[in-house]
Amino acid sequence: MMPETAPYVWQETIWESLVKALRKHGLPHALLLDGERNIGKTDFTRALAKLILCRSPADSFPCGACQSCSMIDAGTHPDRLEIASGGNHVSIKVDDIRLLSSFSQRSSHSGAARIAIIPEAHLMNISASNALLKTLEEPQDQVFIILTSSEPGRLSATVRSRVQRIKMRLPTFEEIKGFVPSQLEKGSTSEFLRLSKGKPFVDDSQLSDFGTSHYQNFQECVLETLLGKKTSVELQKHAVKLTPHLAVDEFFLIAAEILKSLFIESKNSVEKSYFSSGQIVSKEEILNIYFEENSDFKKRQFSKSLAGFIASVESTQKNMKSNSNPNPQLLLDSLIWRWQRLGSFFVRENSS
Ligand SMILES: [Zn+2]
Question: How far, in Å, is the centroid of ligand 1 from the Cα of 112?
Fold first, then answer.
């Protein structure tokens, strides 16, 4: 089914419970859909808005043909408001929310409901958040405000206390398979699943590099640097050909996979097949060769260093996302340097 008309398959349970509430006139005035980026929260919200406004819903879905559905498709429905956020919008400002407040107070054109959508609501600045709070404190009949957020912790506690929070889950491996972007080559399907960390959608900036030879060369060089066969300078040369975000994400995945394979014994576990790509096999081989003869003590030491590295990758990812706008290339360089140091530890430990 088309997005924005029906939920994705991993959202069906939540959809059904909201439809039930809607039928009993028990849909909460304010909802917060909370879940990771790129899992289809906003699409879900748009589909729900369409259903609420549809004049002749078919079963649990909007008909897609009535006047209301047509106006929504054309972007001209007067009883539906979506605040622009994400992309070039670094914050949601108070004027946006004032617009929403007056929207929620005027009477509905169709005599039915009015819906306001705030995607990535944590982007509201403080005055916007205070303005929204006033609107939430005086709920209007038949007005529904739907927020989505991938970082709900950044919403003010008072706003959070005024909305009904719904947790959106990640799709399973099977559910995600049909969502691999068509512009990718067939061979990179499992790589895509690995890179997107179980999310069905990725940012365009990630897609542009993904699956290219630059990307594969970088992956190989990361492993070779760990084994002391390549230096940080060589790794840097490969890294600059990628967007820093992609390179950092790849560091995270490789380090996490190595750490995982140190502890997972079962060869056929679900988690393992989830990450199965050409790379993981060679990483396992590396570890088997180097740790076979080694004591648990050394294995623990290496795991500890690896876990420390993963923690710094995570804080780098956070830094890159934050609005303080640090230099991503510098952050990446520092990770590359740490990785080489980790590699020299690894090689030294194993040749002794
Ligand atoms: Zn309709």
Answer: 13
Cα(113) to ligand 1 centroid in Å equals: 14
| Contact indicator for 254, 221 with CB cutoff of 8 Å | no
pLDDT number for residue 186: 54
Q: Tell me: do 14 and 117 sit in the same domain.
A: yes
Tell me how crowded residue 249 is: count the other CB atoms within 10 A of its CB: 21
Q: Is 54 helix (H, G, I), strand (E, B) or coil?
A: coil
> Residue 206: what pLDDT?
64
All residue ranges of the chain with pLDDT < 50 are: 1-2, 265-282, 289, 352
How far is ligand 1, taken at its centre, from the CA of residue 62, in Å? 5
Domain hosting 79: range is 9-167
Per-residue pLDDT tens over the stretch 190-228 = 667 777 777 777 766 666 777 678 888 898 899 888 888
Question: 111 alpha carbon to ligand 1 midpoint, in Å?
Answer: 15
Residues 118, 55, 57, 64, CA torsion sign: negative
Burial zone of 156 (CB within 10 Å; 0-12 exposed, 13-18 middle, 19+ buried) = middle
Q: Which two tokens stand for residue 125?
A: 């600045």
CA–centroid distance, residue 100 to ligand 1 (Å):
24
> What's this model's pTM, rounded to 2 decimal places?
0.70
How many A from CA of 64 to the centre of ligand 1?
5
Q: What spacing in Å lies between the alpha carbon of 352 and ligand 1's midpoint?
A: 72
User: 40 CA distance to ligand 1 centroid (A)?
Assistant: 21
| Ligand 1 centroid from CA 72, angstroms | 9
For residue 1, the CA-to-ligand 1 centroid distance in Å is: 15
In a domain, 176, yes or no: no
The count of domains in the chain is 2
Instruction: Answer yes or no: do 30 and 151 share one domain.
Output: yes
The tens digit of pLDDT for each residue in 163-189 reads: 999 999 988 877 877 777 766 665 566
Q: What token pair was written down for 15?
A: 């959809």
